[in-house]
Amino acid sequence: MDRRSFLTCSAAGVAAATFAPTLAFAKAATDKRFLFVIQRGAADGLMTLMPTGDPGLAALRPQLAVEGGTKLDGMFTLHPALKQTAALYAAKQAMFVHAVASPYRDRSHFDGQNVLETGGSLPYRLRDGWMNRLVSTMPDDPKAIAFSPTVPPALRGAAQVASYAPSNLPDASQDLLIRVGDLYQADKQLGPLWNQALSARAQAGDLASARGAAAAGALAAKMMAGPNGARIGMVETDGWDTHSGQKGRLNAQLTGMDAMLAAFREGLGADWSNTLVLVATEFGRTARENGTGGTDHGTGSVAWLLGGAVSGGKVVADWPGLSQAALYEDRDLKPTTALDSLIATALAQQFGQDPARLAATLFPETGAKPLPKLLVA
């Protein structure tokens, strides 16, 4: 094992991080914050935000119907697991955009996630991600970080970003930390990297090895709060691919998401008022339930916008309906809003940028057009 390999292993063990050279954040030029939460596996938007006012829902989902929930308007009811999200909606700090989709129209998770994260028109056409391109539009380094063992495709690109995640390895002793620090003290490349690893570990504090959805939200808040916190972040969530046993599994997934978002809000404190959170998935699920108590890969789903910066308390939807004739390819919720346009519009309003120019920068292949709606106050 050479010295650089050893440093990599040691950093993973003691600091649980993958570091770009500038993880030790300085104050960014903006107080605005943006967190992107990706739901990997194609989350079921029809059960997350149920169109209970549409007579087609009960016929399509006789076994998956959920009792209760928070009725948001005459059409939509929020899943009962989302109690704290419902409270944010009541406080006008949450809104939902239904029947949305990226340009992707096939049914591969990997390809769909690639389109969602790179912002291209087809899988693997672009090598960098729209979040990295967002960083490049900002005049001063906004400090971007992924709460993940590696940098996800949405944040990859020319702009410098960092990643941080709790480690599965046991904690190293303080003695080992000191000796490794001494070893690299004179190394101009590895010495600063090691010090940045220790700095990040100290910043994470007792959350450096914490597990669970709420811990993930608290960790993200800790790294993004305060004048020196990151302004752009990304959290990956898995487990949304509910081909069977969906009722219980989706309830658990949404309970976790609810807890994570609540922990993030609480941990940010006063910075929540300047924050925009976007939750989105690579595609939705079939409108009809299948024979194993689940649903299969679909098209349209729902996007969430949350935060003190959101002009919330409403559902935005050009609702296509759930009649057989209204379904996309006779099986999916038909998308009526482009997810690319939604993202570009929300970010332009959040960071005070020209919406058309930002849409062209973030999504250069898709022809994304800004939405004529106030998403961020």
Q: How would you explain this protein's 3D organization?
A:
It is a single chain. The protein is of the alpha/beta class and 377 residues long. It contains twelve helices and 13 strands. Strands 1, 2, 6, 7, 8, 9, 10, 11, 12 and 13 form a ten-stranded mixed sheet that branches. Strands 3-5-4 form a three-stranded antiparallel sheet. A hairpin with a 5-residue loop joins strand 4 (70-71) and strand 5 (77-78). The radius of gyration is 21 Å and the shape is globular. The protein starts with a helix and ends in a 15-residue tail after the last helix. Residues 1-24 have low confidence and may be disordered. Residues 1-26 form the signal peptide. Keywords: Signal. This is DUF1501 domain-containing protein.
Short recap of the structure:
The chain is of the alpha/beta class and 377 residues long. The protein contains twelve helices and 13 strands.
What is the topological layout?
Blueprint: H1 3-14, E1 17-18, E2 33-39, H2 45-48, E3 49-50, H3 56-60, E4 70-71, E5 77-78, H4 83-90, E6 94-101, H5 109-118, H6 130-137, E7 144-147, E8 162-164, H7 174-183, H8 190-204, H9 213-224, E9 232-237, H10 246-268, E10 275-281, E11 301-306, E12 314-316, E13 337-338, H11 339-351, H12 355-362
Parallel strand pairs: 2-9, 2-10, 6-12, 6-13, 7-8, 7-9
Antiparallel strand pairs: 1-8, 3-5, 4-5, 6-11, 10-11
Helix pairs in contact: 1-8, 9-10, 11-12
